[in-house]
Amino acid sequence: MFGKFRKLWRTGERDGGERTQGPAKRERAHNLFEAAAVYVAACAEDDQDEMDKATGWVSPEALSFGVSELACRAVIALARERDESPRDVARTLLGLPAA
């Protein structure tokens, strides 16, 4: 499983094939973390076009993994900034009562 994610992270390609745009122009491959960052930012800005673009860069599984990793890193960064536990920060962000 991790080998597949590692391959997706390196290439940003679903099927291992090259992505092309037009007869002579190649589109740069995107990795799963770049796709996750664009997707989450687009969700926050309610930009459906950018969300659709990011979902085309990597597989749904890879995007899910990237979004999860981004969420973890964001909660850790906020917890450090606020001097709170990651659990408390996550619950606050989701509007849940303190545990």
Number of helices: 5
Averaged pLDDT: 83
Series of H and E elements: HEEHHHH
| Strand order of the biggest β-sheet | 1-2
Largest sheet: 2 strands, antiparallel
* Secondary structure: number of strands: 2
User: How large a portion of the residues is in β-strands, by DSSP E?
Assistant: under 5%
Radius of gyration (CA) equals 16 Å
Low-pLDDT ranges: 12-24
N→C terminal distance: 33 Å
Overall shape? elongated
**Helix/sheet category:** mainly alpha
Helix content: 55-70%
Topology of this structure?
Elements: H1 2-11, E1 20-21, E2 25-26, H2 32-44, H3 48-55, H4 60-82, H5 86-93
Antiparallel strand pairs: 1-2
Helix pairs in contact: 2-3, 2-4, 4-5
Describe, in plain words, how this protein is organized in 3D.
The chain has 99 residues and is mainly α. It is 63% helix and 4% strand. The chain has 5 helices and 2 strands. The chain has helices at 2-11, 32-44, 48-55, 60-82, 86-93, and strands at residues 20-21, 25-26. It starts with a helix and ends in a 6-residue tail after the last helix. Mean pLDDT is 83; it is low at 12-24.
